[in-house]
Amino acid sequence: MEVLDEIRDFLGCETPQAWIDEALKQQDILLIDHAHCEKKAASTAMTLMFRYVDRSDLLNKMSRLAREELIHFEQVLELMEARDVTYCHMSPSRYASGMREHVRTHEPGRLVDTLIVGAFIEARSCERFAKLAPYLDDILAKFYRSLLKSEGRHYQDYLGLAEDYAGEPITERVAHFKAIEEQLICSEDDTFRFHSGVPAA
Q: Which GO annotations describe the biological process of this protein (predicted)?
């Protein structure tokens, strides 16, 4: 899958095996947090639509993205129900907040950085779906593989919009967030979540 190869090049590191091992032991938590991630992804897209009403390309892509993420949310809930896993409140991981605290506060830097962060979140999700699938039962593996195409497109949409709206090359900003993302993924993390780092011993 070409987009998956592109995503692996885009990310600074692969998901550590220790995270995969923990995910297999905590599949209920994984599913609950996955549902939260889909809902948050839809919310992020909607927020961008309300904040940047004059950018038609962004409006169209974020509208489609939000619809797809909500469909994924419903699909995860359906899977959870079939497995007697109850959807509940869950504290977020440090991942998204750890990325977003580096977003610039002035425009267009704020928009560009927000889009780059979105690209990294979608790319990491896609990479983890692909990494997990070989270890999972047939139903969950099939579902995660089915998400690869749309999540890969979401990554491309975010990155393409960032390039369009920057007015200058974004290589340095991408490299900046790449280093932050790699640190979050490869360092010890006390809380297991879909985007958490290496499980603390």
A: tRNA modification
